[in-house]
Design brief:
Blueprint (H helix, E strand, L loop, with lengths): L8 E2 L6 E2 L2 H10 L19 H11 L1 H7 L4 H8 L3 E4 L3 E4 L11 H20 L2
Antiparallel strand pairs: 1-2, 3-4
Helix pairs in contact: 2-3, 2-4, 4-5
Length: 127
């Protein structure tokens, strides 16, 4: 019998693990729990940090925070992730006031984001 030891690489922010160092470097750069993340979706030159977005969320509410994040699903998720909790009866929830944050879905927002981008590309490229 052969046994091989292989290195595993883990994200310093969320704990995700992989066998590829290059993949983990890419993941850590955009990890939604990384306070100095670089967004891979919106690629804004100036983007607000998750801490800034969370402060906006706490003082002004969810809709104002969405505007501050330019409606980027990954940036919004980075602000909401620290508020995630598990309710024994409801399952995963986002803590805080009922201002839309509990109903917001990353998957639905991501689909809408890419549909809008693809539609804009189709109209400008003349397809």
């Amino acid at each position: 019998m052969k046994t091989k030891m292989r290195p595993r690489y883990y994200c310093d922010h969320c704990g995700k693990g992989t066998g590829s160092a290059s993949y983990m470097r890419r993941h850590e750069r955009g990890c939604t729990l990384n306070p100095n993340r670089v967004c891979g979706m919106c690629k804004e030159k100036y983007q607000k940090s998750p801490a800034e977005l969370l402060a906006i969320l706490n003082t002004n509410g969810f809709s104002v925070m969405q505007e501050a994040a330019n409606h980027c699903p990954a940036c919004i998720l980075s602000a909401l992730r620290p508020l995630n909790a598990i309710d024994p009866e409801l399952g995963p929830i986002v803590t805080g006031p009922k201002d839309g944050r509990q109903e917001w879905s990353f998957l639905a927002a991501k689909k809408e984001w890419w549909d809008d981008i693809n539609e804009a590309r189709m109209s400008t490229e003349g397809f």
